[in-house]
Write a structure and sequence with these properties.
The chain has 9 helices and 8 strands. The chain is α/β, with parallel strands linked by helices and about 240 residues long. It has one domain: Alpha-Beta Barrel (TIM Barrel), CATH 3.20.20. The protein has an 8-stranded parallel sheet with strand order 7-6-5-4-3-2-1-8. Helix 4 crosses helix 5.
């Protein structure tokens, strides 16, 4: 366990330095960028090691996988994000297990989450914070609402009293020439600004950027970056 903590701590220090440099280039403050450690496929012991190294936000992709790990780390003072595609029939479990759902891509799913949040006693009347996932690029395997349908989805969500719309998220196409991803991040920021003006409310969170491109995302306005490999190492296959 000590070796694992030391390894993750060293990786985290390197990532934080990269975040600081990117924020400085953009004229921003490092503390205004939240680091979400993507712990999918890694065991609860890795999450605990990362927590001991100073991480406080964690992202998981699958409800079922997180259900098996959550009891082992439930007492940690961390924020748990669902960042993967969520099927609407799993909305009640997601509302119970996660503090935030960062991948809402349809009004139907939002309505299911709203009902689940209303029924979840542990929320104590608090709205469930969510992000809208926007599909950018032509990859049919990626989830997300289209740019054209984004305003209607946001306006529909605002009518749901048990959800708190906090911003936007995207997973752009992967490029070996990492600079090619910049226009996608720039576009998401523009979409956020236009949407915020349209609906008349602040949308403070832009969740974009992963291990290979998070510095560019920060330069383009990311307030949250989702990093797994650069912190935990090569992703482990799901059994």
């Amino acid at each position: 366990m000590t070796v694992e903590i030391d390894r993750i701590a060293a990786n985290l220090e390197h990532v934080r330095k990269q975040i600081a440099r990117a924020a400085e280039r953009a004229g921003r403050r490092e503390e205004n960028v939240t680091l979400v450690a993507v712990s999918k496929t890694f065991p609860a012991s890795a999450i605990r090691a990362a927590y001991d190294a100073g991480l406080r936000h964690f992202g998981e992709n699958r409800v079922q996988e997180w259900e098996s790990k959550q009891p082992q780390v439930a007492k940690l003072g961390a924020t748990w994000h669902l960042i993967g595609h969520l099927q609407s029939n799993k909305a009640p479990r997601a509302a119970r297990l996660f503090h935030r759902v960062d991948s809402v891509d349809s009004l139907h799913l939002a309505q299911k989450l709203d009902a689940a949040a209303a029924a979840e006693a542990s929320r104590e009347g608090k709205a469930l914070p969510i992000l809208i996932e926007v599909h950018m690029g032509d990859e049919v395997t990626k989830s997300g609402v289209s740019e054209a349908d984004l305003p209607a989805l946001a306006e529909g969500i605002l009518a749901l009293s048990h959800l708190e719309l906090s911003g936007l998220m995207t997973i752009p196409p992967f490029f070996k020439e990492v600079e090619r991803v910049r226009p996608f991040f720039h576009k998401l920021r523009e979409l956020r600004d236009e949407l915020s003006s349209r609906i008349g409310r602040s949308l403070p969170i832009l969740s974009m950027g992963m291990s290979n491109d998070f510095e560019i995302a920060i330069e383009e306005g990311a307030t949250e970056v989702r990093i797994g490999t650069a912190i935990f190492g090569t992703r482990q296959p799901i059994a």
